[in-house]
Amino acid sequence: MTSSNTSRNEHPQSASVAPGLTAESTIEKLTGHQDQKTLLKVCLGMPLYNQTEFLPAALDSILAQTYKHFKLVVVDDSTCPDPGEIVKKYASMDKRICYVKNPVRKGLVDNWKRCFELADNADYFGWVSDHDLWHPEFLGSLVEVLNTHPSVVLSYPKTVYIAPDDKKIITKKIAAQKIPPTLSTLNMSESTRIRAVCRDTRGFGKMVYGLFRSDALRSAGVFRRVLFPDVVLLFELCLKGDFVQVDEELRFHRDVVKFSIARQRRSLFVNKPWYILLPWPFVNAVVLFWHTAIISSPGDMRRRLQGVKVSLNYLRRHLSTFGKGSWIGSYNECIKGKSPWIKKLLKIFKG
Question: Which of 286, 270, 280, 350 is nearest to 321 (CA)?
């Protein structure tokens, strides 16, 4: 991993940023003039939840970016005060940080949306985690793509998995993965772009940590209140413009928690929607259909047909994996004889 040449001492020392200030009002208050706003095209949002072990390193990594004209909004959804105390200490030393504490816990989806709501009028917005690291050129590289290509709504880098000691992880599973080609939908027709994103693209959980054009992100609903909201967002966003992956390893991800559907249901929502226990591939396809084919672009039949295409592609892609890891198993596991109940029957028959 390339380390940053930027030291913490290079960041300006300033008065503490008061909780609750928006990024725009903080800029005006601390700089004393509004011209600075024209430079601050970028807002980063960090949803914070009970993370203290890797939080200082994450903040150091963000503040060491060579592209310095950004605001970092940290929205604290923690149930303990320790993460907030760490962020407030950093905010007292760097005026780009705006710390906000939720009065009541929101859950992951609403907290991610709150980060975007506090971005004010930033042209570009990106989420950053409270436990990852970034190459110093991460932000500058993504900003350059968006500045150069007005049709691009999302730019994102290649991601590397790292251990708690920051060393690169290469497990047998990772080594066996087929590395997808660098994605760029530039110069593709809309139909080809939809097919490239909805059928062929992998790694939506990595893509969502890129840099978005704020207007496009807003029009795509930010995060819908569903399971796998990042995938739904990116399916909807591909109707808005192009995706470009920067062909460099600029984000270093610590896999601090193991994924499961049960964990998503617990962490995504505090007030859980009534449909959360329904089959998620159907729910998400219906949500996509409603927003892209029914209420979007009134009178534009071509746009609505593209919304139908995106919704059907979502259902087609995810239906075969529904049930994966459960006792019943997914369709793919069943036809390959790998679902738990088939394995148990085979074990019984084999004696």
Answer: 280
The distance of Cα 100 from the centroid of its chain, to the nearest Å, equals 19
Residue 3 falls within a domain, yes or no?
A: no
- 207 and 234 Cβ atoms separated by less than 8 Å: yes
Are residues 228 and 268 located together in one domain of the fold?
A: no
Burial 62-71 (b: 16+ CB within 10 A, else e): bbbbebbebb
Pick the closest to residue 42 from 213, 271, 171 (CA basis).
213
pLDDT of amino acid 121: 85
Joined together, the tokens standing for residue 18 give 């008061």
Length of the chain: 351
- Integer Cα distance of 186 and 306 in angstroms: 18
Residues 44, 28 share a domain: yes
Closest CA to 70 of 46, 87, 104: 46
Pair 48, 189 in one domain:
yes
Q: Please give, one letter per residue, the 3-state secondary structure of 245-265.
A: EEEEEEEEEECCCCCCHHHHH
Q: Other C-beta atoms within 10 Å of 81: how many?
A: 11
Q: What is the 3-state secondary structure (H, E, C) of 61-91?
A: HHHCCCCCCEEEEEEECCCCCHHHHHHHHHH
- The pLDDT, as a whole number, for residue 265 is 78
Residues 22, 92: Cα–Cα separation, whole Å? 16
Task: Please report the pLDDT score of residue 276 as a whole number.
Answer: 86
What are the average pLDDT values for consecutive 10-residue runs of the chain, which has 351 residues? Answer: 40 35 40 46 96 96 96 96 97 96 94 94 96 97 97 96 88 57 89 93 93 97 94 96 96 81 81 87 94 85 92 88 56 56 63 55
Q: For residues 26 and 55, what is the distance between their CA atoms, to the nearest angstrom?
A: 22
In a domain, 133, yes or no: yes
